Amino acid sequence: MRLRLPFSPRHLVLVPISALMLLPLAWMLITSIQTLPESRHFPPDLIPSGIHWRNYPDAWNAAPFGRFFVNSLIVTLASVGGNLLFCSLAGYAFARLRFVGSNVLFVALLATLMVPFQVTMIPTFLIVKHLGLVNSLGALILPNLVTPFGIFMLRQFFRTLPVELEEAARIDGCSRLGVLFRIVVPLSMPALATLAIVTFLWTWNDFLWPLIVITSPNESTVQLGLASFQGAHQTNWTLLMAGNVMALAPMLLVFVGAQRWFVQSLASTGLKG
Length: 273
Hints:
Elements: H1 10-32, H2 36-39, H3 55-62, H4 65-96, H5 102-111, H6 117-130, H7 137-141, H8 148-160, H9 163-171, H10 176-187, H11 189-205, H12 208-213, H13 222-226, H14 237-257, H15 259-269
Helix pairs in contact: 1-14, 3-14, 4-8, 4-11, 9-10, 11-15
């Protein structure tokens, strides 16, 4: 009689890989509850002498973390809202409307995905500077209101929807925008949720662009605030890791709560041309 395992043999390979991926997270959690001498000990102590929860309030009070969280939340929510609106409009235009040069324009849009941010950050900074937005939250929000990736993903998803539904709405007198917001958007919730989550993670974790355009602590985000624990000669690892855990918590909640949307959206979007 052939023995049937309750799981695939491939899972036996994924278990050690998962453990390896979780190691940095576990190390961060352990360091956040250690004392400063324990965090600097080599080789590292994986079992702390005690649980020092005081590192968390100390990290919160060492810098204006409340202000940092509010700034990050404003920038992130504005970027998510901008991407959902503008990427939906552009994605629907590329998916359904036929105009001269649409294919060339779409290919040019995809080509921008291959341009690294280090190439565009100086022109972007000059634009933001001419608009008078340097050292303000507007400098963080404006460049992130729409992304080529969001347009591409929504365009691919919109093309999987049956066009007969839109034609029926058009026959009933619905406008193009009405078709988009009354027919297409309600059917595209998995893709929209995925785009919202991806934008949330990208914007919340962004460090380089805020480092370039923000100079005031009152306008800093969480990621910039964490850098305040790193000095030129020494680093307070316990407070830094405690701050990282607090900064990571919103992303984990968003990801765990909407994980199923990732699978549903990516499986339905595919790579249809």
